[in-house]
Amino acid sequence: MDLDKPSELDAALEPYQFDVLINSAGLTDVDRCEKETALAHRMNAESPVELAKICRNRSARFVHLGTDYVFSGTGRTPLTEEDPAVPANHYGRSKLAGDLGVLEVNPAALVARISWLFGPEKPAFPEMILKQALAGSRVSAVADKWSSPTYAPDVASWLLALVGQEHQSGLFHLSNAGACSWQEYGQTVLDAALDAGWPLRATLVDPISMDSIKAFVAKRPVYTVMNTARFTNATGIVPRTWQEAIREHVAGKPVPARDDSV
Ligand SMILES: NC(=O)c1ccc[n+]([C@@H]2O[C@H](COP(=O)([O-])OP(=O)(O)OC[C@H]3O[C@@H](n4cnc5c(N)ncnc54)[C@H](OP(=O)(O)O)[C@@H]3O)[C@@H](O)[C@H]2O)c1
Prior knowledge:
Blueprint: H1 9-13, E1 20-23, H2 30-35, H3 37-58, E2 61-67, H4 90-105, E3 110-114, E4 117-118, H5 125-135, E5 140-142, E6 146-147, E7 150-151, H6 152-163, E8 170-173, E9 180-181, H7 182-195, E10 206-208, H8 229-235, H9 242-251
Parallel strand pairs: 1-2, 2-3, 3-8, 4-7, 5-10
Antiparallel strand pairs: 6-9
Helix pairs in contact: 3-4, 5-7, 7-9
The chain binds NADP nicotinamide-adenine-dinucleotide phosphate.
């Protein structure tokens, strides 16, 4: 399916029979969304709403992935599903329009907001930090922005738990437990790699401020740690800490030779 063509989604899905449809696709490049606002709106709002309608009409369950970037990030306490969402940038605005639109046309849908996703399937922040540390270049990361890393295999199991309960619907915040800055996140990745015997040339992540990153086009929210109590109350599952998830993630990688890239 092409999410850039909302009006073609119904025909694209026509040949398929399904009970549950999970939409984890979207336009996630925050700075691109700031420049290509119409594309962001089509992919992150119009198409998810269209998919939600299709699922409603077919009596299939719709599961949509949302983001912590719907929040302004000005507070300093973990955000619940009831907290007002006031996005700081167009990515967040397009995703919020998707969350609200999906639940308006299909109240039985599940919208799972996640944050700082990493996992075995594709490179994310941990892989970027490991690559720099292996190469021996100076490693630095933002120390004045906070959220919660979220391990993709954990999200998959949490979504299964929610889908397994037919009456569950609406917004859920999902992330591993705890909070950190990008600098603490990166340092924990390097510490896990060192413990696993990685031949890192750089072992420390230097703190830098978000203001020093001139490449950012879109404004980033500062504090978007989410409260996951609604999910725990619904399923009885307490997400493990982000540090445990990172240790498992790094332990799942082969230890590279000194000059290998990640
Ligand atoms: N990554 C994070 O830290 C993070 C944080 C919070 C929330 N989320 C949310 O989690 C979800 C997954 O994020 P992600 O990091 O996995 O995103 P991602 O790495 O950018 O992947 C986006 C996916 O969308 C697909 N896609 C792109 N353009 C498309 C189009 N026109 N039609 C159909 N599919 C298209 C891509 O396919 P190709 O690979 O073929 O291009 C890719 O599989 C998103 O809803 C995102 O908003 C992510």
